[in-house]
Design goal:
Elements: E1 3-4, E2 17-18, H1 25-51, H2 53-80, H3 85-96, H4 98-110, H5 113-139, H6 150-173, H7 175-182
Helix pairs in contact: 1-2, 1-3, 1-4, 1-5, 2-3, 2-6, 2-7
Amino acid sequence: MAVVSGHSHGSHHGHAHSVPDSVAAVAWMVILGDGIHNFSDGLAIGAAFASSITGGFSTSIAVFCHELPHEIGDFAVLLRAGMSAKQAIMYNCLSSLLCFLGMLIGVALGNMHSATEWIFACVGGMFLYIALVDMLPEMTSVDPKKGESPFLHLFLQVLGIVMGSSIMLVIAIFEHDIKRAFG
């Protein structure tokens, strides 16, 4: 790893960063954002399991449904930012471990009844914040010079949003059946 003591965009910092020259800063931001996101997922799962087994399973299913495409998207962003496939998988898996830490804390805090509501409120806010800060800038970075079609990007983004919304709708519609299946 090379030590970089400044940035070329005009603002120079006095401290050193240990970031490989070949990997864009956006990759490290995605990893950090994904780690916080995974920690939040773990908090929600832990608090849900502390409340009830059925709530825990339905929350786990919902998290799985949104995490699968999210992790694939993060993997693609990391590759595009200059990481090798092996590095992208390793850092994606490393940030995913924070979900277990969040789950342990969520279970511990979820045993206090009033804490569960606060956990769900904070996690919901984190999901919105992370989606806007982590994903929105990457969604708008289309490079027509590299042959990327803005219409294809728009189509894929809308398709992802519709698929995610559809999955959440199906879970909401069949929530009682899911609770009965695990209850």
